């Protein structure tokens, strides 16, 4: 199977197939005003001790897709009720992180998804962390590009969810920031009388092209959609 290349020859994004695989990383969650964050406490069972690895995460939301296909394709644990996206972290000051195995390193450098089970006391108990990977047997594809409504960029920025681009390919194409969009995430501005803006029913990766995050006509996002193994998505 050939990897499908997006129709936008300028961005030229590899669109799949992908899947997720579990990594051996433990975290603690924090909330600081509008910003949701996390701290890595261990990698491959090795405690980080005094080494400090902290990153931004998306808000924790309930797993509520329009169908069960993406749950199977993304290898979401059966007992998971909620999830959040974990942005990448700076591993420069961590000897433990710099010596992590392949899958754990990929999550640290490029981000991943954390799954939780919410108990009766409304506590989120971590079940599993998965990292995104390009693989021939995957059943997930990126569909797009789709135009982004730039009036909602500020809400992502205020939450600290815009991550500086780490991929050389994306940087060379002009992308400066990436953000993960939650499934059915609603965006509204103050005093907005319009219905909430929902970019995707599933997940999506947002790409912004200006250094200062001001609007650019090339700003766009790609939806993560489930497609049966051996097939390719239709746009």
User: What is the number of strand segments?
Assistant: 16
Biggest sheet: strand arrangement: 1-9-8-7-6
Separation, N- and C-terminal Cα atoms: 18 Å
**How many helical elements?**
5
Major sheet size, sense and barrel closure: 5 strands, antiparallel
User: Can you tell me the number of structural domains?
Assistant: 2
What ranges have pLDDT less than 50 throughout 5 or more consecutive residues? 1-9
User: What fraction, in percent, of the residue positions are helical?
Assistant: 10-25%
**Structural class assignment:** mainly beta
Shape: globular
Tell me what portion of residues adopts beta-strand conformation.
Answer: 35-45%
- Element string (H = helix, E = strand): EEEEEEHEHHEEEHEHEEEEE
How large is the radius of gyration?
17 Å
The average pLDDT is 86
Task: Explain this structure.
It is a single chain. The protein is mainly beta and 235 residues long. It folds into 2 domains: 18-134, no CATH class; 140-226, no CATH class. It has helices at residues 69-73, 95-98, 102-110, 153-158, 168-172; strands at 18-23, 25-32, 35-43, 46-47, 54-56, 61-62, 82-86, 112-118, 124-134, 140-147, 163-164, 177-181, 186-187, 197-198, 203-208, 220-226. The strands form 4 sheets. It has a 5-stranded antiparallel beta sheet with strand order 1-9-8-7-6, with helices on one face. The protein has a 5-stranded antiparallel beta sheet with strand order 10-16-15-12-11. It is globular.
């Amino acid at each position: 199977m050939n990897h499908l290349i997006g129709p936008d020859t300028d961005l030229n994004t590899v669109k799949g197939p992908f899947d997720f695989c579990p990594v051996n990383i433990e975290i603690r969650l924090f909330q600081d005003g509008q910003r949701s964050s996390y701290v890595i406490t261990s990698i491959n069972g090795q405690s980080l001790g005094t080494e400090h690895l902290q990153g931004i995460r998306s808000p924790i939301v309930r797993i509520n897709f329009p169908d069960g296909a993406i749950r199977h394709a993304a290898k979401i644990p059966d007992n998971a009720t909620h999830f959040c996206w974990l942005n990448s972290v700076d591993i420069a000051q961590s000897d433990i992180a710099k010596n992590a195995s392949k899958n754990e390193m990929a999550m640290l450098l490029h981000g991943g998804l954390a799954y939780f089970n919410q108990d009766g006391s409304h506590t989120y108990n971590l079940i599993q962390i998965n990292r995104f990977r390009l693989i021939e047997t995957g059943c997930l594809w990126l569909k797009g590009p789709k135009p982004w409504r730039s009036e909602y960029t500020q809400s992502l920025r205020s939450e600290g969810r815009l991550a500086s681009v780490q991929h050389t390919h994306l940087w060379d194409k002009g992308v400066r920031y990436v953000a993960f969009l939650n499934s059915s995430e609603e965006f509204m501005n103050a005093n907005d009388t319009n219905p909430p803006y929902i970019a995707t029913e599933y997940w999506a990766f947002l790409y912004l092209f200006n250094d200062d995050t001001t609007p650019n006509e090339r700003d766009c996002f790609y939806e993560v959609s489930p497609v049966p193994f051996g097939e390719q998505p239709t746009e």
